[in-house]
Amino acid sequence: MATLLISEDAMLAHDQGRGHPESPARLRAILDRLRARPVAGTRWQAPQPASRAQIARVHTPMYIDFVDGVRGQTVHIDEDVAMAPGSTDASYLAAGAAIEAVTAVMQGAADNAFALVRPPGHHAEVDRAMGFCVFANVAVAAEHARQVLGAQRVLIVDWDVHHGNGTQHIFEARDDVLVFNAHQWPMYPGTGGLHEQGRGAGLGYTINAPLPAGMGDGDYASLFRELLRPVAERFKPDLVLVSAGFDAHRDDPLGGMAVTAEGFAGLCGVVREIAGHSAGGKLVLVLEGGYDLDGLADSAYACVEVLAGATPPVAGSASAAGEAALRQTLASQRRHWQL
């Protein structure tokens, strides 16, 4: 048993061209850091690509046909998503890595796991690519856990600086998957307001925590401790998935937040605690955004250390603006949860 790290160099073949923020250098920076200074208690595994049937649990057949149809081509499939000759295969590998991470954790072959993948996935809608994302990797993994591995309740935590619109839309009418987003607001893609709380059977199982720019370690830590943790205690997930984007880092060129690598390690500590409390420790991180290479590599490495058993840092208190955002979010959720 160990912390499983899943990745594959073939995902570097997804090259969107010079100057594109979501570049092969992102994944390479993380892999180089982890290979240069291996974290004790980790082991590596190369993924197999997801099958079409696994992808089709969350994406339409027409969209999958479209992604398959551009294999080997260089073409834009969205204003923010350019496909290179290796991009379709990389997309299937990214989803497959998320599935294999969940499978290993659910079947007891690993304590927890981190799928280090690209392209990212949380913006991908059921029928289109969006925001650097092709397939909804975390959603694909959650559905595999539900339909194949016996998970009854899945908690998805998204701490990427951008709201995970695709993941939310896939699950917002269901009560077996709770989606928690903490994101900068206002910000691309423009979704994730407090009023978005799910619909139908899923009302209350979509939780959005929009935050003003400039929030740091203490602001995020307070949100996770005072909102996420009590909700998770009541939801009682048997699997915790994290859309682990690191673009809320203070040095990130696409975000406006002030989180440090130590701050992300602290958030990882909270989700590790949640998973340990109700899910037997079953926790999987899947890489999303993060565009400052040093900040990205430092933050991913710090999270791997926490997954492998390191004591997470304890952040300070929230700022006045962070406290106000927290109180506003708590008030919006009290109709659904005892907070």
Q: What are the defining features of this structure?
A:
8-stranded parallel β-sheet, alpha/beta, globular, 339 residues, single chain, two-stranded antiparallel ribbon
The counted number of beta strands is 10
Helix content: 25-40%
Assign the structural class, choosing from mainly alpha, mainly beta, alpha/beta, alpha+beta, or little secondary structure.
alpha/beta
Unreliable parts: none
Identify the quaternary structure here. single chain
Largest sheet: 8 strands, parallel
- In one word, what is the shape? globular
Mean pLDDT: 98
For the biggest β-sheet, the strand order reads 2-1-5-10-9-6-7-8
User: Helix tally?
Assistant: 10
Task: Give the CA-CA distance, first to last residue.
Answer: 36 Å
SSE series: EHEHHEEHEHEHEEHEHEHH
Beta-strand content estimate: 5-15%
State Rg: 18 Å
Provide a descriptive summary of the structure in words.
The protein is an alpha/beta fold. Helix content is 38%, strand content 14%. The chain has 10 helices and 10 strands. The protein has helices at residues 24-36, 52-55, 61-69, 87-106, 137-147, 165-171, 217-235, 261-278, 293-307, 320-333, and strands at 3-6, 42-45, 75-78, 81-83, 112-115, 154-158, 177-184, 206-211, 239-244, 283-287. The protein has an 8-stranded parallel β-sheet with strand order 2-1-5-10-9-6-7-8, sandwiched between helices.
A few lines on this structure:
By secondary structure, this protein is of the alpha/beta class. The protein is built from ten helices and ten strands.
